[in-house]
């Protein structure tokens, strides 16, 4: 299926992350994988996520902080007369890192700011303290990531 090319240039990888609308995080506990799409922000080799403080992903992360993530852009199915010649066009990033729950109020606000700015509006933002304290803000410290593209 098509011609895949590894993207190793850091700027191109960060460009994909800056354009991606969502990220998928893969978690694992007791040999059971779990994947979930999330909104996110990226800055300084870290992914920021927000969530309620309860739920399956939170329980898994408390037991195993290792995370794999994936983001993609410009995805398109390229059809052909012969279905065996269909192709997929995309640019993607896959990475691994360690997730940590941010406890410090200012760190949580920074993470929420990075996440909010990812979707277009520039700060500064005023977050209500009680809402910030209610949220779980997760920082994934990236250990490695690579990019791939196909159909270009």
Q: How much beta, percentage-wise?
A: over 45%
Shape: globular
**Category by helix and strand content:** alpha+beta
Q: What would CATH call the architecture?
A: Roll
- List the secondary-structure elements in sequence, H or E: EHEEEEHEEHHE
- Helical content stands at 25-40%
Major sheet attributes: 8 strands, antiparallel
Mean pLDDT: 93
Poorly predicted runs: none
What's the alpha carbon Rg, rounded to whole Å?
17 Å
Number of helices: 4
Give the beta-strand count: 8
Number of domains: 1
List keywords for this structure.
152 residues; alpha+beta; Pnp Oxidase, Chain A; eight-stranded antiparallel beta sheet; 25% helix; globular
Q: How would you characterize the overall build of this protein?
A:
- The chain is of the alpha+beta class and 152 residues long.
- The chain has one domain (4-150): Electron Transport, Fmn-binding Protein, Chain A (Pnp Oxidase, Chain A, Roll), CATH 2.30.110.
- It has four helices and eight strands.
- Strands 1, 2, 3, 4, 5, 6, 7 and 8 form an eight-stranded antiparallel β-sheet that branches.
- A hairpin with a 2-residue loop joins β2 (23-29) and β3 (32-38).
- The model has no long low-confidence stretch (mean pLDDT 93).
């Amino acid at each position: 299926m098509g011609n895949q090319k590894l993207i190793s240039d850091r700027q191109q990888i960060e460009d994909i992350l800056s354009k991606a609308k969502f990220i998928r995080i893969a978690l694992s506990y007791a040999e059971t994988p779990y994947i979930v799409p999330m909104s996110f922000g990226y800055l300084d080799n870290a992914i920021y996520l927000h969530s309620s403080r309860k739920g399956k992903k939170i329980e898994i992360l408390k037991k195993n902080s290792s995370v794999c993530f994936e983001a993609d852009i410009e995805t398109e199915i390229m059809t052909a007369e012969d279905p065996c010649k269909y192709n997929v066009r995309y640019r993607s990033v896959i990475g691994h890192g360690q997730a940590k729950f941010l406890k410090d109020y200012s760190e949580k606000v920074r993470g929420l700011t990075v996440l909010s700015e990812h979707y277009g509006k520039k700060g500064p933002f005023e977050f209500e303290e009680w809402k910030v304290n209610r949220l779980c803000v997760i920082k994934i410290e990236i250990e490695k990531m690579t990019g791939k593209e196909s159909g270009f």
